[in-house]
Amino acid sequence: MKMQFSMRNVMILKEKTCERFFSEVRSRDGIFVCTIATTETALIPGISAAGATPELRRYTAQADVEYLYYGKVLTIKEIPKNPLGPPSPVIITKAACNLMDIPILIIDAGCEVKPKVPSIVLRKEGLRCITTGKAFGGGKSLIQKAKVLAEEFSKLERYVVLGESVPGGTTTALSLLTFLGIDAMGKVSSSMVDNAHELKEKIVLKAYKNAKLDSKYIVKNPVKIVESVGDSMQLVNAVLTIYLSQKVPVILAGGTQMLAVAAFIDVLSKYLKEDVNWKNISVATTRWVAVDKNADFIGLAKAVKPLKYVFAANLNFSESKFEGLRGYEKGLVKEGVGAGGIVTAGFVKQLFSHEEILHEIEKLFASM
Amino acid sequence: MKMQFSMRNVMILKEKTCERFFSEVRSRDGIFVCTIATTETALIPGISAAGATPELRRYTAQADVEYLYYGKVLTIKEIPKNPLGPPSPVIITKAACNLMDIPILIIDAGCEVKPKVPSIVLRKEGLRCITTGKAFGGGKSLIQKAKVLAEEFSKLERYVVLGESVPGGTTTALSLLTFLGIDAMGKVSSSMVDNAHELKEKIVLKAYKNAKLDSKYIVKNPVKIVESVGDSMQLVNAVLTIYLSQKVPVILAGGTQMLAVAAFIDVLSKYLKEDVNWKNISVATTRWVAVDKNADFIGLAKAVKPLKYVFAANLNFSESKFEGLRGYEKGLVKEGVGAGGIVTAGFVKQLFSHEEILHEIEKLFASM
Fold first, then answer.
1. Taking CB atoms and an 8 Å limit, are A152 and B124 in contact across chains?
2. Nearest chain A residue to B236, by CA
3. pLDDT over 60 at A353, yes or no
4. 3-class DSSP state for residue A269?
5. Ranges of H-type helices in A155-229
6. Which end of chain A is more exposed for a tag (fewer CB within 10 A), N or C?
7. Interface with B, mutate which of A155, A235, A239, A243 (most B CBs under 10 A)
8. Nearest chain B Cα to A142, which residue?
9. Cα–Cα distance for residue pair A242/A259, rounded to 1 Å
10. Chain B window 66-95: which residues touch A at a Cβ cutoff of 8 Å?
11. Residue A105: pLDDT above 90?
12. In which element (H, E) is residue B265 found?
């Protein structure tokens, strides 16, 4: 009975025999780690709806984590919104964290403006636009820091839900996936209804042109690839996952951005000569991403060969009493700040029902 | 039998009936949190031996936490040393953490130069000399951040060993203790053999003169006191302890610096109108601090009235094969980076014997 209850709420999108992974998650408590960064890629008009305007997108990641900790935003006036109205998915994440009583830790992988929350700072500066072909530097130092952090987190013996907030991040995901040889053009998700595939592709091609890297770098030096045409969240979350997976289960909480992280884990672990335990790794997103007709999350998930477990939290806001939340059903907002992954963890551990999480989200929405 | 084993190694210096506290610590796993900061107070010649020269003391805290994480120092050439030779107590802390497999988290409460480790940054800038009467600003923001951090740490349901590395910190401790009405002149500990009581007192009196605060601030606004004549570690660790104590046991790991934190907890909790659970709070230091004839740790501990539990790890290096370590028995180094508190936790939980911890320290010393 209990199993059915949980399975209705979690969509299983790849390998079907995931009972071992679920039981590893069920057998322990968790922590929620959210890695944030800002990239000037997000400032390109029309690239993202994670924040109402390009100028406000400078602060979306910071506002997200401030809301997570304080239930209010300090850096800007209010919680980030899609220009068409629906609030940032952070309210889903916050609602789940409230019900799960799970500890939250923020990793700052490079923000131009620092959030007003206690965060583990791995990098001082924000990231350049990927069209420069030099998105960020200091990748080796980030690897060193993320590795020790993973070692410390491992000692907690908890499962880790690893989220992100990186406005412009689906474009850097497209860029990294494609460079790694995965046919991702037209397939990544978006914070916008109609996506912006053509614009994203144009940006990615410009990034490649200026980066002047060839595919030999996949083996020779994948760190250079992510530094040139990716983002620091991808690198940090990949390193964390490699080392965490050796000890504890990890839920990469996100959509196509986390598929890019998973694809990168494969090449990075070989380069670092580190074991990665794929039996301890899943990607979990929301239903809105999984069924998005303007993207191909499931197709991309299949293309990331070593990744076994891919889930989606079967969230449905069509019955919500709030129009803002019903906007999720129109694809106006789909995922972010680890929403899909943390809710999946809550469903797998039966810490709340769909009714309870929706109720908590509505409570937060009403008090915004 | 087992109890006797542990009691030989832990000196009980105040309230004798501490079995409840010990059993709370024994019933759970722990985390080690080390709060660091730099104050220009440490640059006054003759004030400190935490670092071989005033210039090197700018980097003592950073080097300490780098060694904790990496087993090597990145910011400067080598692990901080007393000018007379013995190494920073961080090797004791590191040895204990190795044997206990306890997760380590670093809080940066304000460092002029940032350490090259992942740390939770609460404040960007370092602190001014207390003689300015304006050591730091932004106390309210630090309280807000430390509070949410304590709430997240509490959810781990682990005991917390809370250490510090703040060169010059016994002078700011003297300053805060005295302002709070505790007769501390000539009684605080020191990183030097002969202490430097006269110099410290002169500095404190200059701080008071320039701060222009009267004793009414103890009730009216104690945050202003610590901002003016104390340091940010004292404020952050006090806030963390207040909120942590409501849920989990806390070991304030240090000597007279942690007595200053304990004294400040009393006034700050009243000001913030927050409950503090003294049954969940202890101060634990090393034997070298407890028996130091040039200070009066036990007398000061008694003067901090609400503080119930005060311990010292009964470490003894007189039989060490290394002269550098035997220097601890001459009072050349005594405490720091939470050494006494983390070893006390290890002894209470019987995770190592005196022989085992000494062996691990010698191993680290030999490989330095």
1. no
2. A118
3. yes
4. helix
5. 169-179, 197-211, 217-220, 222-229
6. N
7. A155
8. B118
9. 14
10. 69-70
11. yes
12. helix B256-272
pLDDT of residue A160: 98
State residue A7's pLDDT score.
63
Q: Tell me which residue in B31, B116, B148 faces A118 most closely, judged by beta carbons.
A: B148
Q: What is the pLDDT of residues A161-201, one digit of tens each?
A: 999 999 999 999 999 999 999 999 999 988 777 788 999 99
Q: Per residue in A201-259, pLDDT tens? A: 999 999 999 999 999 999 999 999 999 999 999 999 999 999 999 999 999 999 999 99
Which member of A114, A118, A124 has the closest CB to residue B149?
A118
pLDDT the model gives residue A314: 97
Residue B87 has a pLDDT of 85
Give the largest Cα separation in chain A, rounded: 56
pLDDT value, residue B103: 98
Asked whether the predicted pLDDT for residue B154 surpasses 90, the reply is: yes
pLDDT at residue B5 greater than cutoff 70: no
Tokens of B173: 């401790």
Phi, psi at B33, each rounded to 5°: -115, 125
Interface mutation target, options B65, B152, B240, chain A, most CBs of A under 10 Å? B152
With beta carbons less than 8 A apart as the criterion, state whether A160 and A153 touch.
yes
Q: What is the ipTM of this complex?
A: 0.94
Q: Which of A70, A118, A149 sits opposite B118 (nearest CB)?
A: A149
Residue from A19, A17, A59, A5 nearest A36 by CA: A59
The proportion of chain B whose per-residue pLDDT surpasses 70, expressed as a percent, equals: 97
Count the Cβ atoms, other than its own, within 10 Å of residue A267. 21
* Total count of residues recorded for chain B: 368
Which residues are registered as beta bridge partners of A81?
Answer: A87
User: Rounded CA gap, B345 and B251, in Å?
Assistant: 8
Interchain CB distance below 8 Å, B117 and A152: no
Number of other residues whose CB lies within 10 A of the CB of residue B15: 14
Q: Token pair for residue B168?
A: 């010059």
Q: Which of A148-162, A194-208, B99-113, B115-129 is least confident?
A: A194-208
- Which residue among A114, A118, A155 places its CB closest to the CB of B120? A118
Instruction: Report how far residue A41's alpha carbon sits from residue A133's, in angstroms, rounded to the nearest whole number.
Output: 11
Q: How far is A144 from chain B (nearest CA, A)?
A: 9
CA–CA separation, A5 and A352 (whole Å): 10
Residue B141: closest C-alpha in chain A: A116
Reference B115, options B151, B64, B186; nearest CA is B64
Q: Which of A219, A210, A201, A105 is nearest to A152 (CA)?
A: A105
